[in-house]
Amino acid sequence: MRPAVWPIAALLAGYPIWWALGLGGLSIVVLAVPMAVVLWRRRPIKVPKGMGLWFLLLAGYAISAVTLAENPPGTYGDLSTGRILGYLMRLAVYVALAVTVLYLGNLTLDELPQLTLVRLLGVLFITTVAGGLLGVFAPGFQFTAPVELLLPDWIGGNSFVKNLIHPTAGQVQHVLGHASPRPEAPFEWANAWGSNISVLLVWFVVGWWTYGGRGRRVAVAVLLPLAAIPIVYSLNRGLWIGLALSAAYLAFRWRPLVVGVAVALAGGALLLSPLAAIVGQRLANPHSNDIRAFTVASTVRAAATSPVIGYGNTRNAYGNYSTITTGKTAWCPTCGHPPLGSDGQLWLTLITQGLTGAALYVAFFLGAIRRYWSDRSPIGQAGTLVMILVLFYMFVYDGLVSALSLYLISFALLWRNAAQRQAPRNARWAHG
Description:
two-stranded antiparallel sheet, O-antigen ligase family protein
């Protein structure tokens, strides 16, 4: 790899270090600075088709700051430091992601071959499996990161900020009626781990199996069964559905018989393992459905009162699905509720940027599917699958911070792949 490539290598291969420092998903903001320097030196900058939608999304989010002090009907809260910090962090991430896409697309294929980038994503998959196993077997593992020590309490003590900078292996929740570990290392929370491992799995298989030699294929054969342990223990139904969608997509676009046999073998192995009982218990305990329904409905109602620019950040609604009491109390420990927009990137975009922002977000990824669907190469098909997963996960997962980074890197891979396919065609025309 050439010197200009080190920021993306530092992001993907060095992610455990960023996590240990307390930066984790926010490392994309730090590394966007040297990426921007590389871009500045390479002017004029190439821009992919469809990127204008992301720039409009960015501009809309900047405008939404004017409503930060307002509260839609049915919500409460003041213009606090936490609300402003959350807004600024999301704005910084959106900008950093735009820089990352342009940076990757303006590196030459000699500097950063496609397969190298795919395999770097595979390295992060290995990290994610290791973090998942740590979360299953040592869910209480956590420590104070250097960034936490440096930040003043009025910043580091904010709950949103703390989730981002405090390294934890997992969450212990009572989803099944008893304490159960849910892995989250090396990401912000358990749902982020679920979204990310499904996307990274796609690239791991492409880079380490499809284009892999004997050693890498052995690694795949060993790591996939290991990955099944935290995937099941995550109790993450969205992740499980995402994996089923991935199998259906591959069967549709690739080899139905091969995919069907692989799925049947994996399903049989799961049913014969102790993990099957955990899956059955989770499906029988859909305790989060009522909470999600309340939060989503409240989000839609709030967004309808500012449909063009939204409210810049999340809000808290009065009450929850079972009571009008707001927040946890000694006599009502279950009265708390998640912030509006926390149940999926679509709902987050609705409350922060209104219907306009949500439409731009959907159009960006839909456009990528339409534009790159004809790319039948392994990288093209994998990237298109990730774009489809993005549109599914937006209903159940908040994409910020780490998940959106992987989504946009996958978009950049599709763009680079299309440019690579176009180059020989242009060369033939030039010499025709």
